[in-house]
């Protein structure tokens, strides 16, 4: 089902497909394992007002939902127990977020995270290259980490990973990227993205980049 929906989305990029695969695309509101109201591609809805701004539709009529409907839906879900599967909450929902809207919001979030990563990963902060110049697989791995952890968390609580990134030691980065609260499959996929970059790298290229970085700073 997810593959069919993504295939219809003409701008489905590797980043969109990757995030959708591991986050899922849930068209109704639910509570995640930490009781956060969530919808779409893992979008945390921080407050009722944020929920009312979403382009939701009535499940029965497919007409745009009113503000009152959205407020009622949010309040209903907030009172439900956390820790259930996302599908369990569907029985309590009368509104849905269209897939096209989920994809639009996802692309906005990806762009925002990439902007934040570009501000973090650059020579001014001690990295050899800017985020946009890193291997595609490394960019995707970092995007997955930022999307899941939040860029502030990634930049402040993962010193060993960041140190490996500054050296462009992709194999060490692969060993430092495991998260405790995500699936084994997602951790393995992120690790493999770093390994992929390491496999495509070579010693001469690494030495040249480090020399060039030192020359640029001198």
TrEMBL record:
Coiled coil: none annotated. One of its GO terms (biological process) is peptidoglycan catabolic process. GO terms for molecular function: lysozyme activity. It comes from the Bacteria. Signal peptide: none annotated. The keyword Hydrolase applies. It is an enzyme of class 3 (hydrolase). The keyword Hydrolase applies. Keywords: Antimicrobial, Bacteriolytic enzyme, Glycosidase, Hydrolase. Pfam families: Phage_lysozyme. Its EC number is 3.2.1.17. Belongs to the glycosyl hydrolase 24 family. This is Lysozyme.
């Amino acid at each position: 089902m997810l593959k069919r929906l993504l295939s219809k989305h003409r701008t489905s990029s590797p980043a969109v497909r990757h995030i959708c695969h591991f986050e899922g695309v849930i068209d109704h509101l639910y509570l995640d394992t930490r009781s956060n109201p969530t919808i779409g591609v893992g979008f945390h809805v921080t407050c009722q007002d944020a929920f009312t701004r979403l382009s939701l539709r009535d499940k029965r009529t497919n007409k745009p939902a009113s503000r009152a409907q959205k407020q009622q839906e949010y309040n209903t879900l907030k009172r439900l127990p956390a820790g259930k599967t996302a599908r369990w909450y569907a029985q309590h929902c009368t509104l849905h977020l269209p897939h096209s809207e989920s994809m639009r919001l996802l692309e906005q979030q990806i762009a925002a995270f990439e902007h934040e990563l570009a501000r973090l990963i650059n020579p001014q902060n001690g990295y050899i290259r800017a985020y946009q110049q890193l291997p595609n697989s490394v960019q995707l791995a970092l995007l997955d980490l930022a999307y899941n952890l939040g860029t502030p968390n990634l930049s402040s609580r993962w010193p060993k990973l960041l140190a490996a990134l500054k050296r462009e030691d992709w194999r060490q980065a692969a060993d430092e990227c495991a998260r405790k609260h995500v699936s084994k499959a997602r951790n393995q996929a992120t690790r493999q993205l770093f390994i992929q970059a390491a496999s495509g790298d070579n010693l001469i290229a690494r030495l040249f980049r480090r020399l060039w970085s030192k020359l640029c700073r001198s």
